[in-house]
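Researcher: We're teaching a course module on how sequence relates to structure. For the next exercise, students receive a sequence and then see the predicted structure as tokens, so they can try to spot secondary structure elements on their own. Here is the exercise chain.
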Amino acid sequence: MVIFHSLRLQRSCLVLAVAALLSVAPSRAQNAADTGDNTPVIHMQTRLVVLDVVVEDANGNPVLGLKRNNFVVDESDRAQQLRSFEYHVSSDAQPVGPKPPELASGSFTNYTQLPPSAALNVLLLDTLNTPIKDQLYLRAQLRKYLDQSPKQQSLAIFALNRQLLLLQGFTSDSNVLRAALARKDAIRGSDLMDDPSGGNVDQPTIADQIEARAPNQLTATGSNFAQILSNVQQFEAETKSQTTQLRVQYTLDAMNALARYLSNFPGRKNIIWFSGSFPLNLLPDPTIANGFSAMNLNEAEFRDTVTLLGNAQAAIYPVDVRGSVSPTPYDAASSGRKYATAPASISEDVNAFNSSQMEANMTMQKMAEGTGGVAFTGTNDLATAMTKAVKAGANYYSLSYSPPPGRVDGEYRRIAVHLVGVPNATNYHLAYRRGYFTSPPDGVPLTSANLGLAEAYRRVALSHGAPESQDIIFRASAYALPGAPAPSLTQGDILASRSTLKAPYRRIAVHFSALPNAITFTQNNGQQDASVSFDVYVYAEDGTLLLTNGRELKLHLTPEVYKRIMNSVVSMDLTVSVPAAHAAFLRMGVEDMPTGRAGAIEISTRSVPVAAPAPRSLEDVTQP
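Model: And here is the predicted structure for the students to work with:
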């Protein structure tokens, strides 16, 4: 939640820089030394904490018209001086944004231009943790919501399974959103759930079957009934724990990808997370020395995800899609077959269900409270829950302040907001982020103990179908090389472990042009050092990874060359092999190695034209 300089200023300056980037033609005559642009680069290092506050009365209606002096913000029990104050109110009018520059055939970019808006709403359809029955009901409820709300703010739809899948980018067109909900990959079964269909059909475990057998029968064969039962129960418990752990890791990866995607858009984002269970608690316990200690997860990625959500001004609105549910023994779909042989397990299963429900509701409440959202549980009217979530997140006050000095190594800082000089303020409910984890200033390399993991970058940013990361804005020009298909792979190609790719191959040349403002340069003996990775992942049309090709570029620049680069672009060329007989997907990425910031673009080879002159690479312009 600590950011550097104004988000509005950052985005407006970025628009100008992107326009310049997209106007660079991929020809041999164009390189960093040829621009002749001596515009000075302005670096701003103002640390700000941006805090969105939703104020509602006792009936859940937004409280409008509060002033700057009505808000008092405390950080770690110390009052803070507000640097800025803005009030955002919902509107049916949909502002129109600037038209992005047109790209030539074969050129692509990860920059997304959105119209100015008070808030952006994200629908996260959790197929990983939700039975199919509940997924089908959810789709019907969302279609009902779209029918009832023709005028709405921009929505984006994501699906969460073993990775985050972008079903539809931000749009206010309800017909486009309905088409996204109708996609086949919008509904998936999860093989990591005990009951993926959601039918509540009795599924006796091996331990149940052993327990149902008479102990004297096992004793007669020389077996130890108690020991066998204990061993099987232990095995099944460990197996269930491992599958739950996988669900947690996949959920964490998806949240990381979503946070990275949203952090590049200004203003508030409301993540409306529809799920059948919530195995992930995104808010570690701030009251103990190591709030991650009980999670048994990648602490660095956890901290990275929480920080990215804060920087993105993203509030989570968890919605339990199961609605009003009853324990399995009392469910109408339950045959009771299991309990006929093990009646004592009825109370065990009821207690386990109640405990699970309470834990899930507490996780949802804590997640919502900690990020500034609202949790919705125990309701079958999901369309109304969606309406309330959008309404709550559309009217808010945006505050900012400069945090007091202190550690920047992941220290948790608590935030409290109070209203003063407001009649009936004690009856009002305030929703806002309750704290944040500190991180090093922008441009400082991050270690595995802080943020930025190369492993997470490759899992998240380079996954097929994931949102296109915009930490680093770049353009990629892709062209199929002319000539007959090649019998062998090109240099640098590495086949994936389960690749089905076979000769002959078509070869595609990719030229990267990235903005240097997101690349970390550090001084070393009077020169500027940087390390940037350029990658192309080739996926089959069914999403199977076929091969990868990449190159890490290490720079050691003189002050003169560094100045030219900062006023131009960073470039690289790669050539990859793709199937000659059918189409594939190219996932192209640029990563700043010291920090883990990344940009990504995904295209189909069907959109790649044939032939173009090979552009010059960065080495041609960075050598003394």
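Model: If you want an answer key for the exercise: The chain has 13 helices and 24 strands. The longest strand covers residues 527-540.
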